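**Sequence, structure tokens**
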Amino acid sequence: MNLDMMTAVLVIPVLMAAAARDIMTSEIPRWTTVGVACIGVMRTLFRIIAEKAAGEAALADVAGMIFRPVLGAAAVLILLLPIYYMTGREKLGGGDIKLMVAAGILLGAWNAVLALMFACIYCCIYRVIRPARTARSGVFAFGPYLAAGIITMLIGMQKIS
């Protein structure tokens, strides 16, 4: 079992828990975002250790591997924080942003942006098929779509590598 497969096996149950909790309570638990981020950091560390042990990683490669999660988190923040503030914090919650920042740490910048794009596509498809249903408070659970987008990218990374 390779590292990407082990990552998927660990992350998918955490994402499913986040999605279920978001549907039920309109909140994404902090432990799920911390869990995804920690798995992303561990994945990066294991990649560095494995490549150093094999003698394949130069210092520049290690720096790139360390920079990848930081860039992923920053890219997602740059995309989502303006939306968060422009909508008055009503449409995109802090839990959604934290989950995507954790996904940026796990997947890297490009894959995290693609995961967000897939989440938006899945949300649009669902809303076309099934008209908008929101809770009584008007809160919309975006967490399940984010989880689906992240899982899509985890599986997509498996297919590519």
